[in-house]
Amino acid sequence: MTTRTLFMLPGDGIGPEAMAEVSKLIAYMNSNEDAGFKTEEGLVGGSAYDAHGAAISDEDMDKAMAADAVLFGAVGGPKWDGVDYDVRPEAGLLRLRKDMELFANLRPAICYPALAAASSLKQELIEGLDILIVRELTGGVYFGEPKTITDLGNGQKRAVDSQVYDTYEIERIAGVAFELARTRSNSVCSMEKHNVMKSGVLWKEVVTATHQAKYSDVTLTHMLADAGGMQLVRQPKQFDVIVTDNLFGDMLSDVAAMLTGSLGMLPSASLGAPDAKTGSRKALYEPVHGSAPDIAGQGIANPIAMIASFAMCLRYSFSMISEADRLENAISTVLDKGIRTGDIMAEGCKQVSTSEMGDAIVNAY
Amino acid sequence: MTTRTLFMLPGDGIGPEAMAEVSKLIAYMNSNEDAGFKTEEGLVGGSAYDAHGAAISDEDMDKAMAADAVLFGAVGGPKWDGVDYDVRPEAGLLRLRKDMELFANLRPAICYPALAAASSLKQELIEGLDILIVRELTGGVYFGEPKTITDLGNGQKRAVDSQVYDTYEIERIAGVAFELARTRSNSVCSMEKHNVMKSGVLWKEVVTATHQAKYSDVTLTHMLADAGGMQLVRQPKQFDVIVTDNLFGDMLSDVAAMLTGSLGMLPSASLGAPDAKTGSRKALYEPVHGSAPDIAGQGIANPIAMIASFAMCLRYSFSMISEADRLENAISTVLDKGIRTGDIMAEGCKQVSTSEMGDAIVNAY
Ligand SMILES: CC(C)[C@H](C(=O)O)[C@@H](O)C(=O)O
Ligand SMILES: CC(C)[C@H](C(=O)O)[C@@H](O)C(=O)O
């Protein structure tokens, strides 16, 4: 039997509750399908800070590096608003991304048919939406140096962040976007601000060159990132794959996620480069939503984004394609039946708890 | 009679057509109201490049600096896609902003009642929307140094942009936002990414301190910029004034503009600091939309954003409040009557040309 190691980092807020529902699925797959998942749990974010003063410990980092895949819940909350910058909850997530070299962040923005009415957009604009945002995740302004606050005297400080991109970083993320486009509608829209940023100039140049060299069968278009935000709101279905940098990707994927009306349902995958020998790649899977401290601990959070993130894990880390498909179908089935957590409750539907939602999905799987 | 000097920079694409409709209004106000506007015209963007190889000439810069207000159309188009970075059309606009020290960019996102149905958002979410985005315009990643592309050899290049903010820059834009909030619903939401960016940390700190020191009567909230993008899509009416940095402001104001369904109608004002003696401030007014090269020269562009920008000019540069109100009402009246350019055409309305729209507004004024 294959052994598949999963390192689970539930984190803060609703993270642990959502993760518990994935554990149910794993238990089910282990006993009924000999899936061979071996899990271990660690701490990240505020809960790690409370335990040992850092947003993730070196020991847990080692475990994350060694695992076949990492499942990540959510981090942060008002409790840790005042902690030092270097040990704030987000630092744990950023260290995982950086040390594991998870440069490719895949954020599908899909609209579950049963939830199309929940979008703030008109239903016809959003029904059937299926966009994949490919966000660069280990470069840009998130990690560039210098990144400082300096006291200038006279009551003045100066804050500096640096957006830095090298050719190879753009090349490899463009490659991921083009490869994925080939499995979808074969079209990529690259977004930057070359009219203002030098990194945008290089971005456009390298994406264009990568396209010409290896992916000229894929349709490539370019859009300024601000115009991209507009177009996402105006006519989201015009897009298939969007490739963009770390900061624009952060903004644009959140806007896209909210458009679907399915924010609590959206998963993400963060992938490293495939190992030259084994083809395996480091990977972390996390919901797009945050830690929602306001509803944490009440058993009412929506676990679907976390479960859908596990479906991405099956697909991308273990090539368990039919299992991933079945799990995604199970989610749709449960939604079609009108089973809903509070955040997506609608007239005529049945409101359930986090745990009941997890059970329903396991049953439908 | 007062003399009021206006320097007009129609620019490229639909800029000149839209500006021509403002000229009609000015002529009307001069002959019927002794408004005393004295206008002069210059070149900016691609048309300036074609004439003398720069996106704006030093001579025209001098005129912009000397005028009571600058009216700006739009710049750019595929014709100039290949020109050098330093002389690209946008460089003209950026130089105007920087040299005139127009640090405060006011971007109202309002929804004209007659156009609520044109929004991609559900009508009830958007009806009555009235947000003011206050964007910092002379700092951040737009102007920070270093801003370079370096050849590293081995086919690798490195692009660097620098986001730089000093305390005083944040303080003065926060002050503008708080002052304006007092004339509206008295609430400001400040957006940054303090969880990732040092400039976000300083931003939040300085906005908070400014609030405490001088504006504690105004309600202040903070939101991460990505969450802000989401909330704009989810529930835009929760906002009154939003204050944010140059790059986030670029993205967020475009998303907000598109939400209203009234993109072709939205104006903006870019203001400098009031002169200590005279109280007058340098100012530039421009539509939020771009140069729309695809429809340029056909006489079908919507001139309303340009005309509404002139209304802002009346209000902010000349304190002609009743005239500004009348002009804004004239726009609403014309829309209520069902007079529409092609971009906002709807069933049962009358489609008119750029020039006919301008005439209708002058008549309703
Ligand atoms: C939590 C935060 C550091 C993170 C980011 O900015 O990348 C989040 O917003 C995301 O999009 O995953
Ligand atoms: C034309 C461009 C340089 C400009 C900007 O990025 O500021 C535009 O998008 C805007 O928002 O005014």
Offer a quick outline of the entry.
Chains A, B: It catalyses: (2R,3S)-3-isopropylmalate + NAD(+) = 4-methyl-2-oxopentanoate + CO2 + NADH. Chain A has 365 residues and is an alpha/beta fold.
Layout: helices, strands, pairs:
Two copies of one chain form a homodimer.
Chain A: E1 4-11, H1 15-33, E2 37-41, H2 46-52, H3 58-66, E3 69-74, H4 89-99, E4 104-110, H5 123-126, E5 130-136, E6 144-153, E7 156-166, H6 167-182, E8 187-192, H7 198-214, E9 219-224, H8 225-234, E10 241-244, H9 246-259, E11 267-271, E12 283-287, H10 304-318, H11 321-336, E13 339-340, E14 350-351, H12 354-364
Parallel strand pairs in A: 1-2, 1-3, 3-12, 5-10, 8-9, 8-10, 13-14
Antiparallel strand pairs in A: 4-5, 4-11, 6-7, 11-12
Helix pairs in contact in A: 1-10, 1-12, 6-7, 8-9, 10-11, 11-12
The complex binds 3-isopropylmalic acid (2 copies).
Describe the protein's architecture and organization.
The structure is a homodimer of 365-residue chains. By secondary structure, chain A is an alpha/beta fold. Chain A has two domains: 1-103 and 277-365, Isopropylmalate Dehydrogenase, CATH 3.40.718; 104-271, Isopropylmalate Dehydrogenase (3-Layer(aba) Sandwich). The first copy, chain A, is built from twelve helices and 14 strands. Chain A has helices spanning 15-33, 46-52, 58-66, 89-99, 123-126, 167-182, 198-214, 225-234, 246-259, 304-318, 321-336, 354-364; strands at residues 4-11, 37-41, 69-74, 104-110, 130-136, 144-153, 156-166, 187-192, 219-224, 241-244, 267-271, 283-287, 339-340, 350-351. In chain A, strands 2-1-3-12-11-4-5-10-8-9 form a ten-stranded mixed β-sheet, sandwiched between helices. In chain A, a hairpin with a 2-residue loop joins strand 6 and strand 7. Chain A starts with a strand and ends with a helix. The mean pLDDT of chain A is 96. The complex binds 3-isopropylmalic acid (2 copies). One 3-isopropylmalic acid sits between chains A (195-196, 226) and B (90, 93, 250).
